[in-house]
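Hello Y.,

Per our agreement to keep a running log of every chain we model this quarter, I'm adding this entry. I've kept the format consistent with earlier entries: sequence first, then predicted structure.
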Amino acid sequence: MARSFGAWLAVLVVLVASTTLGGCYLGPSPVQYAALAVVDGRATAFVASCRRSSVHLSLYSDEDSAGGPLHLWSVTVAVPDGAESVEVELLGAPRPGWEITSKENVGGGSDAPRVVPLTSLEPGRHYTLDSSESGPEGTSAPFIRFTTDVLSKIRAGEVLVPLEKKRVKSVPRQTFIDDRCH
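Predicted structure for the entry above:
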C-alpha cells in the first residue's frame, strides 16, 4: 500500500510540475495566450492554441469612461486539427470557423456596462487584446495593451508579447509558440 501511494504521489508531482512549468495548461479550463502581429498591414492576434479545438479573443477600448458604453469585439475561432497556432485578424469579418461573440447590448442590469461593437482602431486610443480563459486556481493569460502606433513597429515574422502590465516586447513567432506550447 505504501509503495502504491508513493507511485501515485510521484505521478501527481510530475503532472503538477509539467502544467505549472510548461507554457500551456491542458486541463479542463485552459489558459490561452495571444500575441499581437501585423499580417498584410492588418492588426492580427497570433494565438498559441497548443492543439486546443477553439480559442476566444476579446479586443476592447481601454478609454471607455465609467458608466459609458464598452466598445468590444470578441470572437471564438475553431482551430484546425493539430494546429499549435492560429491567426485572427482583429475586427475582421467572420470567416468559416469564426463566431463573432460580441453583440450590442442596449440594456442589462445596473452593474452591466452597455456594450457596443468595436469596429475600428483609432490612432491615439488605447486597446486591450485579451485571450484569457480562466485556468486552475484563477490563472489567466496576460493582456496586451497597445495603441495603433505600435503596429508599425512590429516586423515581419515577429509578434508583440506582454512583459509587464503596460510593456511589451517583440519576439519571433516561433519563439512565442515554443515558449507557450512546449
